[in-house]
Amino acid sequence: MKKETTITATVFFVVGFLAGYITFVLTATKGQVSPASTTAAAGSQPQGDVSAGAATTNPVNGASPALPEGHPPIDTDTAIRMVQEEMAQNPKDPKPPLGLANFLYDQKQFAQAIEWYQKALALDPSNVDARTDMGTAYFNSGKADEALREYRKSLEIDPHHKQTMFNIIIVYLEGKHDRAAARKAWERLHQEDPNYKGLDDLKQKVDATQAFPTSLPNSR
After folding, report:
1. CA dist., res. 115 & res. 106, Å (int)
2. What is the pLDDT of residues 160-185, one digit of tens each?
3. pTM for the whole structure
């Protein structure tokens, strides 16, 4: 998943499946896929921090080598053109649009990232990490309901996907201001894995909201 998932709130996502920073490599070997999920990312960001970037990824095939020393950065328009050309040759391969979606996410171009996640998921609808990353992109766009919709779809595919469970807690807490739903989501993940990284800290965040109404209007 992308780096498993930017939430600029008191609580951080993993993202993600999102750690590191995506760079492009024109000569990368095809087929080397770097997971975009925050849970699979390198760990330079706290788990659950969607502000973390995706793992270093090639825009065309999702590979993860770094750019050669002195190589100029690749701009968004060039990356999109590269992926469009690759997709014209390999229209059934989900890796090019997924790599581009991860890149755009790390550039905080969330609307475009969502578009390319959708393209990748049309080719590989069972990719839970990609769907969760798309949900996080929705959340970072201020669309909590859309984020929850995608997270629910992720859990329909993999009911034990812990990163998705973690992100759901955040969205209910920070996006929906629904303490009861956040606590219920926390309890589900706690039952799944009581030692999940960041879960204890998150409980403190949930408990700290007890002075507020259970549900507040979505301010986003």
Report:
1. 14
2. 999 999 999 999 999 999 999 999 99
3. 0.69
